[in-house]
Write a structure and sequence with these properties.
5-stranded antiparallel beta sheet; 9 helices; 9% strand; single chain; 209 residues; alpha+beta
Length: 209
């Protein structure tokens, strides 16, 4: 399965904002945005270019792709699926991305970042409705239960993540039982519940050309 394996801090610097790709490090002064919030490369220290039209749309798409760890072809498929469904395409697109298993694991506080959640899912540490699943892109549905496998409950990485993200909170569309280390999808996320600085309409405009 294709994925980005390069340095992730440069992705945040390129977008000029925290994408929270390195877990708790992003909340400290060691974060690249805190230390040097300039685009990567030799010309990064120069004057920032003013974006308009296509440039704004492209940057918004790249930001969302990097935030969720999705490459171009898969992201386009998500958009096409959202475009076929009823409702507002941009909001449906974000809903599909939030429903990814790795994103749900991150939102439940069982991982400190989406990349870490993706790795844990690939290593078969989680179950969906009692069945072990190793597909990060698995799309959860309302009523599904995501739980940590019995043999994985003692894994220090997961326990550490739960401690680190206690103050982050759980989205309203999820319920989490810390004792059982399991979460339930009570409903599909609405746009108001996806509290991310994303202008999804720019992505719709980009792909609609």
């Amino acid at each position: 399965m294709a994925r980005y394996v390069g340095p992730v801090c440069r992705l945040c610097r390129r977008e000029g904002m925290k994408l929270f790709l390195k877990g708790e490090r992003c909340y400290t002064e060691k974060c690249a945005i805190e230390k040097r919030n300039v685009p990567p490369g030799e010309r990064g220290k120069g004057r920032k270019a003013r974006l308009a039209g296509y440039g704004l749309q492209l940057r918004e798409k790249q930001k969302v792709k990097r935030m969720y760890g999705v490459l171009e072809n898969q992201f386009r498929r998500y958009f096409e699926a959202a475009d076929r469904q009823r409702g507002i395409t941009g909001e449906t697109l974000l809903q599909l991305l939030e429903r990814r298993l790795d994103s749900v694991v991150y939102r439940l506080g069982l991982a400190t970042s989406r990349p870490q959640a993706r790795q844990l899912v690939r290593h078969r540490h989680f179950l969906i409705n009692g069945r072990r699943t190793d597909i990060p892109s698995y799309s959860v549905r309302a009523g599904d239960v995501v739980s940590v496998g019995v043999t994985s409950m003692k894994k220090l990485l997961i326990q550490h993540a739960m401690e680190e993200v206690k103050g982050r909170g759980i989205p309203e569309w999820l319920e989490f039982d810390s004792e059982k280390m399991s979460g339930r999808i009570t409903s599909l996320p609405t746009r108001e519940q996806i509290n991310l600085p994303i202008q999804e309409q720019l992505i719709v405009e980009l792909y609609s050309k």
